[in-house]
TrEMBL record:
The keyword Lipid biosynthesis does not apply. This is histidine kinase. It is an enzyme of class 2 (transferase). It comes from Acidisarcina polymorpha. The keyword Oxidoreductase does not apply. Keywords: ATP-binding, Kinase, Nucleotide-binding, Phosphoprotein, Transferase, Two-component regulatory system. Residues 108-160 form the PAC domain. SUPFAM superfamilies: ATPase domain of HSP90 chaperone/DNA topoisomerase II/histidine kinase, Homodimeric domain of signal transducing histidine kinase, PYP-like sensor domain (PAS domain).
Length: 390
């Protein structure tokens, strides 16, 4: 009897073990399927996953994680590579998020910029948490990352578009408000010029009148430059340079800036004169700003050139300075609207407006700059002889 009972019990245990093993296998299969689904979802959404063993210090990443940092699946990617990729301005925020994840034992989210090996800048949104062992000591750092650069670009573009729309509205109202006043002052200057017998005073008043007319042009035409109406005029490089320098004579001599002019062309260019003056004024103004009170040399050069893309010949103006120069990251942004390094002294619209004007003249605006020991910047402005064709 005992033998039979113990045989039955042993048989039962066998069944229990078999059932438990089958249950474990089912759970394992379900876990693998769930992991696979998660992996697929992460890969499809380009979400990268990573894990860092805090003792050994090694980092394990998914292919998507590497892709978020501009790496191929086979490329090495260590924790040091990750740290080196972070934009210097964002390092402190990332370190603080990691510290908080350990201290507060809850997942931390951070958004930061990283440089890819090709030099491009990307935005990453990351979430990470710490895993602890049975003794409550932190052992592993796990997290997910996602490249959100496109979202940032879209947001920036939206912001810029909104700002530009606001500038458009503002400039229209400025033009409207100021134009009447300018007309009144222009008439008064004319009357004063007629009334005074003093020849010097008459000349000064004539210059003031002319400059005021340009202010009127700037408000009514340039700020609303999509609605340009004035007629084109043939103008010489020498005229453009003369006027540009005459209104800045004081600043040039106060800063001790030596101006060198090299004019090797006498053929005029047909253009919307007010607009081209505005472009040149901004280039000369920027050159003076870049040299600051230290002074330096400014070279203004005019010669004939040919646009290799179109085969059209025209006027090539150069404004070169021995100023501070523009570093790489800034050089990529100087033609953006509202990009300025001059704080409240600049609007950052000068080069943006200039590029628009030059493009509408079928011309080209180029720049080269260096910030090393013999620093300086060279802007070139090419205008085909028949630039005003619209
Ligand atoms: N010759 C130059 N040397 C050094 N930096 C320059 C030079 N020209 C332009 N820059 C840089 O490009 C930026 C943009 O120039 P831009 O003319 O568009 O605006 P701004 O001069 O700052 O403002 P605004 O023209 O409205 O007064 C400047 O703030 C400056 O940082
Ligand atoms: Mg400027």
């Amino acid at each position: 009897m005992n033998t039979v009972e113990s045989a039955i019990r042993a048989r039962k245990r066998q069944f229990q073990v078999r059932d438990a093993m089958a249950e474990r296998d089912r759970a394992l299969i379900a876990l693998r399927q769930s992991e696979e689904r998660l992996r697929l979802a992460a890969e499809t959404a380009h979400i990268g996953t990573w894990e860092r063993d805090l003792d050994a210090g090694n980092l394990q990443c998914s292919d998507s994680c590497k892709a978020n940092f501009g790496r191929k699946p086979d490329d090495p990617f260590t924790f040091e590579d990750f740290q080196n990729a972070i934009h210097p301005e964002d390092c402190a925020a990332v370190t603080a998020a990691l510290g908080a994840a350990i201290r507060e034992r809850v997942p931390q989210r951070a958004e930061y910029r990283v440089f890819w090996p090709d030099g491009s800048l990307h935005w990453i949104v990351a979430s990470g948490r710490i895993l602890f062992n049975a003794n409550g000591l932190p052992t592993t750092l796990v997290g997910v990352v996602l490249d959100v650069t496109e979202r940032h670009i879209a947001m920036d573009t939206l912001l810029r578009t909104e700002k530009l729309a606001a500038v458009g509205r503002l400039s229209s109202s400025i033009a409207h408000e100021i134009n009447n006043l300018l007309e009144c002052v222009t008439n008064l200057l004319y009357l004063a010029r007629q009334a005074t017998p003093d020849q010097d005073a008459r000349e000064y008043l004539a210059v003031a009148e002319r400059e005021l007319r340009r202010v009127a042009d700037i408000t009514s035409q340039t700020l609303r430059f999509h609605k340009q109406q004035s007629a084109p005029r043939a103008i010489l490089a020498s005229e453009l340079f003369d006027d540009c320098l005459s209104i800045r004579q004081d600043r040039l001599s106060n800063a001790g800036i030596i101006v060198e002019r090299r004019l090797k062309i006498t053929r005029p260019v047909l253009c919307f004169e007010g607009e081209i003056r505005q472009v040149l004024n901004n280039l000369v103004g920027n050159a003076i700003d870049a040299m600051g009170a230290k002074g330096g040399r400014m070279l203004l050069r005019a010669r004939e050139s040919t646009d290799w893309r179109t085969g059209r010949s025209g006027l090539l103006l150069t404004v070169a300075d021995t100023g501070s120069g523009i570093d790489g990251p800034n050089l990529r942004r100087i033609f953006e609207a509202f990009f300025t390094t001059k704080g409240i002294a600049g609007t950052g619209l000068g080069l943006w407006v200039s590029q628009e004007i030059v493009e509408r003249h079928s011309g080209r605006l180029g720049v080269r700059s260096r910030t090393e020991a013999s620093s300086g910047t060279v802007f070139t402005l090419f205008l085909p002889y028949e630039a005003a064709t619209r």
